[in-house]
Every structure is written in C-alpha cells, then in structure tokens.
Amino acid sequence: MGIEKNLPDSSPPGLVGLALETGLEAWAESRGWPAYRGRQIEHWLFERSELAPDAMSDLPANLRNELTSEGFSPRLAIVRKSESRDGTAKILFRTREGAFVESVVIPAGKRTTLCLSSQIGCGVGCGFCASGMRGVRRNLDADEIVEQFLLSRHAAEGMDRRVTNVVMMGMGEPMHNVDNVLAALGTLHDPKRIHFGARRITVSTVGIAQGVERLTGSGRPYTLAFSLHAPNDAIRRRIVPLKAAMTVREIRDAGARYMATTGRKVTFEYVLLKGINDHPEDARELAQLLRGVPGVVNLIPYNPVEGLEFERPTDRAIHGFADLLERRGTRVSLRLRKGADIDAACGQLALKSSQQ
Ligand code: SF4
What is the dihedral of CA 48, 49, 55, 60, to 10 degrees? Predict the structure, then answer.
C-alpha cells in the first residue's frame, strides 16, 4: 500500500475557512466594514449554503469584489452528481489542487443521511474498500469538511430532502484527522452557525486509540461507530491491515467506556464478506465477544468493488448470520444495499475519477 506523504493544501481559505479561522464579523471590521456585513456573509454560507462571494446578492458590489479578488472562493467544487434508482445520490467534489473526494446523500423513509469524507484517500487500506487502494494523499481541512456538508445539504434540498443525519464514513479514517474532524463537527453543531444536533452525527473509526479518547472527552454526544468487521483479530487483520488499530477486545472495551461516559450509542459495523467473515461460527464468536455490551451490530452486505476479489454473501447466509446473533442476544440492524448502480461503496466514484 503506497501511502503518500500528507501534504497540506497551502492555498488561501475560502469564506468558510475565514469564518472558522478569524470570524467574519472580526474580518469585516478589520477591513472597515460594519460587523453586520460579516453576519450577512455567515448567513449566506451556513443558512443558504452559498459559498461564492459573487452570488451574495445583498452585499455591496465593492465588498463582493474585495472577497473575490482576495481569492476567498470555495475550496470544493461539485463536478458530478450521480443519482441511483433507489434515490441515493453520490456527489463528487474536486479540491483546488485537482484531487477528488465524495459524499453520499442517502434517503431512507423520513431520514436523509449525509455520508461525508474526512481525507483524500485513506491510509488504512481495508481489503474490501476502494478508498484505501491508493493510500492517503492528505487530510481534509475543517473548512473543506464543512463545505462538503453545505454543498451536499444543498444538493439534498434540491432532491426535496431535509438532511436529518450525518455520518463521517466516506473516504478516510476520521480519527487520523481528528483535529479537523472535531473542528468541522463543532461548526456543524454550533447554534450560531449550522446548528445541527450532535446526537444526529456519527463518527466512524477502525479503532485508533488516541482519536477515540479525544472523541470520548469531546463532551459532545456524537454516536461512535467502530468498523469491527470480524469476531477475532486473526480474521480482522486480513480485512483491516493497519497494525496500529485496536484489537477486537480493545474495541469492545472502548465501546463500553464510550457508552458509560457519554450515555451515547455505539455501533459495531460489520461488512459481510463471502467466505471471509460470514460463517456461522463467526456469528457465534461475535455474539460472545459483545456479550454484555449494549451496542448494536450493523450488518452491511458487501457492495462489490471493481478490481477487488471480495464477494457479497448469499441472502441466505446474510439472514442466517443475523438470526444467529439475535438468538444470542446481540442487537442487530441489517443495512440493505443502497446505490449499487452508482458506485456507492466508499471511495469508488473518486477512485474512478482519479484514474480517468
Ligand atoms: S473502509 Fe474506511 S477505513 Fe477502511 S480503507 Fe476504506 S475509507 Fe479507509
């Protein structure tokens, strides 16, 4: 797995970045504008998802020109939106340096979930995942993650959907970029900015101990999702090759601690891979591992990725696995496949675009 150096993007911030770093009221006053002009810009950004200064029609023309000429343009641009037959929409963004990241809008009944990326690529290299195929290029900055949210929310609204949930489960390992992820989620949660409930935000991880500690101590009631994928370390190492990741027992214990400390839910994500982790004995061992831990196991039948050898188990094996867990007292949720016709497995669309 070729992991490239984590090179920061040194271009100037967009307006969201300016809001996060300096505050737009302070910036406006420092330039001789009244503070309320800063509040107007914040309104355009966080309420209306409009990131381009020249579209902020109630600002004076010379303020718009000042913002544009100083380069406060958005850091992400939507290059493609693909909608699946089941309503799932995948959005492909280009960063200023020409790299690709993606988000997914997932409608399900009254819920609409946004799945956001935290890095360009991923350094974990899970065997079944498109994002890990080329290693990590760099972390996304906090303002890029917020821009991704705003542009994706705007796209969802264009589909007549109101975003109800956010999951940090797109490209990247969020806990490898914990500072920027927590800063971005703080902006989402901030009542003066986006005011999105922390309880409706889920952060996933393969089990990076320091990151999990930071999240546990963040004081915000996010849901924590461990990408477990195996009932024991031998199987897990075949799927999640990162040596620094926590063991399955450490994950189980950290999950129990997180619930006890925050009172929030923990989920254990389990991608079912045919012949790898879908045997009846795997279900029994998983139930034994999680005995007494009040989390939920999310079973996710695998979405095949071009170029990778893993397969989706049969429906019979999937339901048999879920039944075995339930009969042993494990809480289970079975996630049906969404967006299969638009490359909605994580990282597939961005990987294809970077190969073109
Ligand atoms: S599944 Fe997640 S952690 Fe694993 S390689 Fe893909 S993006 Fe990274």
Answer: 60
